[in-house]
Structures are given as C-alpha cells and as structure tokens.
C-alpha cells in the first residue's frame, strides 16, 4: 500500500488469436497508481548498500612530472587502438528488447514541422555511454512479477570520471570491463539476442528520428509545497470576507462513521524528486557528432543538467516491426559511416527553403 | 636369557637397533638460537666498556645547532635526537656522522658532527637506499616466519638496493619445486609486513667477529659461504655487521633505517622462480612507501604493476661455483 503500484494493462490486440499465446501477449504498464502515504520522500543519505563513489581527497605532494606521467598512463590505458572484444551480434526478432541510453537534459528548443506547426523539443545529450556488464537471464534477480520471456540485463555507464578520485571499491566495478569509471550507471532489461560485450560504446545513433521513446527521470525537487501547487486545489477567493484561508486545503474529513482523516488525504508536503516515466515521445532529430537527441515536448522529468534514462517505447502503437526497427543491437558508429544530422521526415530543417503557403 | 641389568650394559657394545630420529630443523628454532647468540654477543660487547667516557657531539639542524655531551661507545644518534626534539626522534631515518652515513642505533665512537636524514628533504638519496635495503631485510624476516614448520626456508641473499628497479627483492630457497602464489597468499605476506611495521622494532646493529656470525648462521648454507667474503672486505678484515629486528637476525653491510615503523604502505606483488645449479630459488618482490606518504589507489596500482616485472638486480651466485668471488652479493 505504501509504495506506488504499477497497474499492468493487457492491451487488446486487433488479432485476438494472439492473446491466447502468453509469449506474444504485450504487457504494457501505462497507469501509475500514486499511493504515496507513509513513504519517506526526502532521503538525505544514499542507501547503505551503495558503494561510495568518490574518496576523501588528501594532499599527495606529487611532483609535476609524476602528474603528467599518470595522465599519460590513464590516457593510454583507456584508449586502446584494438577493436573491442565483440560477441556474436543478435538479430532483431519480434518482442526483442534492446538496451536504452543514459542521457542528460541540456535544454528545450522549438522546432517546426514542414506544415509550419511549432513544437517544443527537449535536447538530451548522450555522453560517453559504454556497456559495463552483461547479466545473463539465469543471474537476474527474479522479482515478484512473472515474466513471459527470458530477459537478461545490460549495465550501462555514462560520463567518465578520473580513476584517481574514485574509491577502490567503486573502481573495481569497472576494472573487469576495462572501461574508465563512470559517474552514472543503470541497468536495462534486454532479450538475450540484444546483448553487447562490455566496453562497447553507445551513441545517440542507437535511436532514430521517427521512432518513439520512453524517458524515465527524477522530477524537479519543488520542496515543501502547499495543496494548490501540489494537488491542484482551487483555493479560496482573495477578498469578499474570506478569513485567513486563501490557499489552504479546507475540509479534510467526511465525519459520521468515518470519524478520522482518511489515508491518502491530499495535504501539503514534499513535492517532486520522484521517478517518473514519460511514454511515447517522438524522436525528431539526432546529431551524431555531439550525440544529442531531440525528443518531443518540454516535459521530460527533471531539470536541465539532470540524468534521464531513454528506452525504446513500450506503447503498442509505437512498437517496432521488421520493416522499421532501429539498428539492432545498437548502431556501431565506429564501423559504419553515419550522417552528422538526422532529421525526421516531417521536420523542417533550416537549411532547406522556407515553408511555403499557398495563398487562398 | 639376560637380566635387564646386563642388557642395559650391552647396547654400547652391540649395534643400536632402535631407529634414531634426527631432530628436524625448523625456522622457529633456528631463529631463536640466532637471537640468543645475538643477545649474548651484545651483552658481552657492552660489558667490555668498564669506564664511561664523554664525547662532544656537534649537532647541526633543526630546531637549533647545539653541542651534546654523550657517552662514548654507548650513545647513539637516536639518543641525541631524544635530547633534541620528538619530531627529530620520530622522523629521522639515518644519521650523518662526520659526513658518513650512520645507523640511528649505532653507538658513536668519538667527538663528531651530527646531522639527521629523513624522507622529505630535498635529496633523500641515502634515506631512500636505506629504506629499500631495510624493506628487503623485513621481507626476509617475513619469509622466514610465514611458512609452515615442515618447510625449512633458507634465505639466500638480496641484490644491492636500487629504487629505480621498481621493487625490493629477496631471493629464498623454499625447498619446493614450484610455487605460484595466489592473490590471497600474496596479501597474507603483505599483511605480515604490515604487522612487522606496526610492531615498531628497532634495527639493532652489532659488529661481530666472523666466527660468531658463522656460528649464528651455521644452519644456512648460503650465508656460511657469504660471511667469509663479507668479512674479508670489512675494514678490520674479520668482522661482519649483523642486524636484529624482533627475533630475526640478518647479516648485512649497509645502513638500515631507524626502525620498522618507517615502513608505510607495502605490497608483496610477485614471486619469480630462479634456476641455479644447486637449488631452485625464488625471487620474492615487493614495493613500499614510507610511512606518512599518501597515494591514491590508482597511482599505487601503477607502482604495483611495475613491481611485478622480474627485478633486474643481480641474481644470486651459484653456491657450487668455483670462480673466485670478488664481490659479495649481500650488501
């Protein structure tokens, strides 16, 4: 009751015969029942099981020559001219799930479609994403939810940090993969055919314009907020005799048999800093040089500079098909040539001639 | 049919039929013996000084230059430091007596000038060398005490200290054909080094006659070869210097650091087999930093990786070699 529950809705497919086969049934989690009573929202310390990322810095009195030498060692260690060890690459099949990316929200820009419609897009930068570990389906910790297909997981890391400032415990997580320590890590559930070897770099070209993504992120921390901002209460008039109750919650109980405040009554409290998933955002544009993705809308959870987790959309209308699936298991940008700017067909690019209207 | 009395008299005449068990040599027993002989010799040498004579020691350094009146043949530079300052006591690794490098616990002979050497001065060349040499000796101590009793470990020697080689070294005869230590075993050895450092033993120095040294190291076939060579090269012609830390005794020439507490971060990183005519030796390698020197794990890992490479120091001489030995391998 305390934690938010996800209501799983089985979507009725057009072809009803497919519903009978459990493997082909699509499980879509769309509604999130927000029951946040008795849940501590603000945590000032991270959980005890999380390893400390950075260590206490102390003066080492290293000579300048040694500093230069260590920088060279780090550069040499993490930039091998050899190709990364490659496992067998899987091929796309129906109900395949590939990994997502970890991006950073860097801003909001307007874009225009070819018929002149203005829309807002959020820019997400995918910076230094690399596969750190592949977890086989047997090793996945099975939760309470029953799975109808075998799923493995890929641990992806983003944004590397200097190996000298991290703790030894945290550093050991990356030493097996031979990658530089990362600031952010996340686990993405995948079907085994989408597995990638540790050390594989991931770029924004993993997604393609015209496809749809789901974005998970931590919403902006708004602090302790009143009922009007938090729950959208109407409040009371500013004048006409209203005494001291302009933005308050008003009545909180029903009385009679239920002579108590019911559980879940909307009241002022901490708002924001929660994990939310926004579904079905269209990818409008991708820049492969700077690894930036333009997604639809300004409402990506989190503020500018915060990390988001980008997945292929699970919505049934935007599922991939044999004809229009993105590069599987990922786009190997080091091996193939990719254009610098990729646009959706409907998007107006400013290099083209301006939108023309026929005067009636 | 003989009575028991007669039977008791007979064994001297008749060959013995009972099996005779020779007491097996163990490292613990040998170490105890050496330590006892060291104590005896130290007491004997101390008893030779019947009259306490005074000497003037001119101290140059922090916090101020001064003249100390010390006891001839008894006072050490460490005692001088005790008179001066706690920082000098704890920080000093070596002493410089009349321009010559001197152990901190070696008695002063005559009027002299005194300076202290430590790791953080602008050119700590002698301190570094002493540190590396002492680390080798401590490694020897650890190797002698870490193995099971049924293995009699014989320490061979260590090459001249060379910090630039990346590791300090001890060559040892383990009497097993091969040994590839696991990570846990190397960590155990490193732990023993740390324990030795925490025990804060002094490097007690003693100049003994070659015969006494040979008696101490009678159970080590390598040392019995090396001691006469070292004695021949000494100034007097027949003395060698022995050092003791705790209950481990080692014969060596060069100055050692003041005590084991100067050893800070230490790792034993590799064991390389060395083939010689007589025995299968093992070159045990490690790397260390003096106490108080802080270094992040990544940079220290770079040092450890470098120390794993086979040390280029001189390999121990074959004990069956017939060539004339001009220079002893142990310094």
Automatic annotation (TrEMBL), chain A:
Keyword Ribonucleoprotein: yes
GO biological process terms, semicolon-separated: translation
Regions annotated as coiled coil: none
GO MF terms held by the record: structural constituent of ribosome
Superkingdom of the source species: Eukaryota
SUPFAM superfamilies per the UniProt record, alphabetical: Translation proteins
Presence of keyword Ribonucleoprotein: yes
Annotated region (Disordered), positions in chain: 238-258
Keywords from the named record: Ribonucleoprotein, Ribosomal protein
GO terms for cellular component: mitochondrial large ribosomal subunit
InterPro entries listed in its UniProt record: Ribosomal_uL3, Ribosomal_uL3_bac/org-type, Transl_B-barrel_sf
Family of this protein: Belongs to the universal ribosomal protein uL3 family.
NCBIfam families registered for this protein in UniProt: L3_bact
Protein name, per record: Large ribosomal subunit protein uL3m
Species in which this protein is naturally found: Scylla paramamosain (Mud crab)
TrEMBL record, chain B:
Domain of life: Eukaryota
Subcellular location: Mitochondrion
Entry-linked InterPro entries: Beta-grasp_dom_sf, Pro-tRNA_synthetase, TGS, TGS-like, Thr/Ala-tRNA-synth_IIc_edit
Gene Ontology CC terms: mitochondrion; ribonucleoprotein complex; ribosome
Cell membrane listed as a keyword: no
UniProt entry tagged with the keyword Thylakoid: no
Alphabetical UniProt keywords: Mitochondrion, Ribonucleoprotein, Ribosomal protein
Location of the TGS domain: 75-117
SUPFAM superfamilies (alphabetical): TGS-like, ThrRS/AlaRS common domain
GO molecular function terms listed in the Swiss-Prot or TrEMBL record: nucleotide binding; RNA binding
PANTHER family the record matches: LARGE RIBOSOMAL SUBUNIT PROTEIN ML39 (PTHR42753:SF9), MITOCHONDRIAL RIBOSOME PROTEIN L39/PROLYL-TRNA LIGASE FAMILY MEMBER (PTHR42753)
Family (UniProt): Belongs to the mitochondrion-specific ribosomal protein mL39 family.
Record's protein name: Large ribosomal subunit protein mL39
Source species of the chain: Scylla paramamosain (Mud crab)
């Amino acid at each position: 009751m305390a934690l938010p529950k996800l209501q799983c809705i089985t979507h009725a497919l057009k072809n009803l015969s497919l519903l009978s086969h459990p493997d082909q049934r699509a499980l879509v989690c769309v509604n999130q029942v927000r029951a946040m009573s008795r849940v501590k929202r603000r945590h000032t310390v991270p959980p005890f099981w999380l390893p400390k990322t950075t260590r206490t810095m102390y003066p080492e009195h290293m000579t300048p020559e040694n500093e230069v030498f260590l920088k060279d060692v780090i550069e040499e260690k993490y930039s091998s001219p050899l190709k990364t060890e490659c496992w067998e690459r899987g091929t796309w099949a129906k109900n395949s799930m590939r990994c997502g990316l970890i991006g950073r929200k860097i801003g909001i820009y307007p874009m225009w479609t070819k018929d002149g419609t203005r829309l807002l897009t959020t820019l997400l930068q995918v910076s230094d994403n690399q596969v750190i570990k592949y977890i086989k389906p047997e090793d996945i910790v099975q939760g309470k939810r029953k799975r109808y297909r075998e799923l493995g997981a890929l641990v992806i890391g983003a944004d590397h940090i200097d190996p000298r400032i991290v703790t030894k415990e945290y550093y050991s997580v990356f030493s097996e993969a031979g990658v530089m320590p990362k600031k952010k890590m996340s686990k993405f559930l995948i079907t085994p055919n989408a597995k990638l070897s540790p050390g594989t770099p991931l770029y924004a070209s993993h997604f393609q314009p015209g496809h749809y993504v789901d974005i998970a992120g931590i919403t902006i921390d708004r602090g302790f907020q009143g009922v009007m901002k938090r729950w959208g209460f109407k409040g009371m008039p500013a004048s006409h005799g209203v005494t001291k109750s302009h933005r308050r919650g008003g009545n909180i109980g029903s009385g009679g048999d239920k002579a108590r405040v019911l559980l879940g009554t909307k009241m002022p409290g901490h708002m924001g800093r929660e994990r939310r998933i926004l579904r079905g955002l269209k990818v409008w544009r991708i820049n492969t040089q700077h690894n930036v993705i333009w997604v639809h809308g300004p409402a990506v959870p989190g503020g500018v500079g915060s990390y988001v987790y980008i997945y292929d959309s699970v919505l049934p209308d935007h599922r991939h098909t044999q004809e229009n699936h993105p590069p599987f298991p990922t786009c190997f940008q080091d091996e193939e040539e990719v254009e610098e700017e990729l646009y959706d067909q409907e998007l107006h690019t400013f290099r083209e001639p301006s939108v023309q209207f026929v005067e009636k | 049919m003989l009575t028991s009395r007669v039977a008791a008299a007979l064994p001297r005449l008749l060959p013995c039929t009972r099996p005779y068990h020779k007491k097996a040599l163990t490292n613990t027993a040998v170490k105890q013996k050496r330590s006892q002989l060291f104590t005896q010799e130290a007491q004997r040498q101390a008893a030779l000084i019947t009259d306490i004579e005074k000497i003037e020691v001119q101290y140059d350094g922090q916090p101020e230059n001064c003249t100390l009146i010390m006891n001839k043949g008894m006072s050490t530079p460490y005692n001088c430091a005790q008179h001066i300052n706690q920082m000098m006591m704890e920080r000093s690794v070596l002493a410089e007596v009349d321009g010559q490098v001197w152990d901190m616990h070696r008695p002063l002979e005559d009027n002299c000038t005194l300076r202290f050497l430590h790791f953080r001065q602008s050119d700590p060349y002698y301190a570094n060398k002493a540190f590396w040499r002492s680390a080798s000796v401590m490694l020897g101590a650890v190797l002698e005490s870490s193995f099971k009793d049924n293995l009699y470990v014989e320490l061979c020697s260590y090459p001249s200290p060379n910090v630039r080689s990346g590791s300090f070294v001890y060559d040892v005869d383990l009497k097993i054909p091969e040994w590839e230590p696991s990570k846990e075993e190397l960590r155990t050895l490193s732990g023993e080094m740390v324990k030795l450092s925490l025990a804060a033993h002094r490097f007690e120095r003693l100049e003994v006659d070659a015969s006494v040294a040979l008696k101490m190291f009678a159970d080590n076939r390598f040392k019995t070869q090396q001691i006469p060579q070292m004695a021949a090269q000494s100034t007097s012609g027949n003395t060698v210097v022995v050092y003791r830390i705790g209950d481990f005794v080692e014969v060596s020439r060069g100055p050692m650091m003041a005590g084991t507490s100067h050893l800070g971060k230490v790792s034993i990183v590799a064991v390389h087999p060395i083939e010689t005519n007589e025995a299968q030796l093992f070159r045990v390698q490690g790397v260390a930093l003096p106490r108080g020197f802080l270094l992040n794990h990544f940079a220290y890992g770079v040092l450890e990786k470098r120390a794993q490479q086979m040390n280029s120091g001189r390999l121990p001489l074959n004990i069956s070699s017939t060539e004339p030995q001009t220079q002893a391998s142990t310094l």
